[in-house]
Amino acid sequence: MGIRLISTLFLAMAGWSTQAQKYVAEKSFVSFYSHATLEDIKADNLKTVSIFNQATNDIAFSVPVAEFQFAKSLMKEHFKEKYMETEKYPTSTFQGKISGFDFKVKGIQQTKATGKLAIHGVTRDVEITGTVEKQGNKLLMKAKFIVKLEDYNVTIPQIVWQNIAEQVEVTVDFVYKPQ
């Protein structure tokens, strides 16, 4: 599945300048955290693929939703089948542009990614603040943002409303290397 996601990302960005330095995610970490009345839910995903075009600041990533890992197997099963419907919506994606990043500057830079976030078959325009740091030939990108479940047609059954928050905090942490 990883090869298919990478191929899709490369095809989506085929129009990018061939002279530009492109970076691919060497390490990826995507997590979400839900704080609810009865239970906190946290899941991590290390299978995300991403590419970044340094010349244009274009970025894209694809998260295989079924690859989120939970502390309890029943949580994962419910997440995949009842809420995210991973058979129907196997990936979540972001495609956009980063502003506030200067490749010549060393150290941590405050940035903003503006683009389209697709979750559960719904695509919305988003702005996500984060940081980019150049370390040698690698780039480290980090961000935290809130996703409201209703914005992406993820419904919470009334019977479990105290177990699942209406919004989740998403963390992304990518380490890129030159392609």
In words, what does this structure look like?
β6 (about 90-100) and β7 (about 105-120) form a beta hairpin. This protein has a single domain (about 1-15, about 20-179), classed as Lipid/polyisoprenoid-binding, YceI-like (Lipocalin, Beta Barrel), CATH 2.40.128. It is mainly beta and about 180 residues long. Strands 1-3-4-6-7-8-9-10 form an eight-stranded antiparallel beta barrel. It has helices at about 1-10, 75-85; strands at about 20-35, 40-45, 50-55, 60-65, 70, 90-100, 105-120, 120-135, 140-150, 165-179.
Gist of the model:
With 179 residues, the chain is mostly beta strands. The protein is 12% helix and 52% strand. The chain starts with a helix and ends with a strand.
Which features does this protein show?
179 residues; 12% helix; Lipocalin; 52% strand; 10 strands; eight-stranded antiparallel beta barrel; elongated; mainly beta
Helix/strand layout:
Layout: H1 2-12, E1 22-35, E2 40-45, E3 49-53, E4 58-64, E5 69-70, H2 73-83, E6 91-99, E7 107-119, E8 122-135, E9 138-148, E10 167-178
| Level-2 CATH architecture | Beta Barrel
The CATH class assignment is Mainly Beta
Helix-strand makeup class: mainly beta
Distance between the termini: 20 Å
Number of strands: 10
Name the poorly predicted regions. Answer: none
Q: How confident overall, as mean pLDDT?
A: 87
For the largest beta sheet, what order do the strands appear in spatially?
1-3-4-6-7-8-9-10
Any idea of the CATH topology? Lipocalin
Count of structural domains: 1
User: H/E series, N to C?
Assistant: HEEEEEHEEEEE
Characterize the biggest β-sheet: 8 strands, antiparallel, barrel
Q: Using only CA atoms, what is the Rg?
A: 17 Å
The fraction of residues assigned to DSSP E strands is over 45%
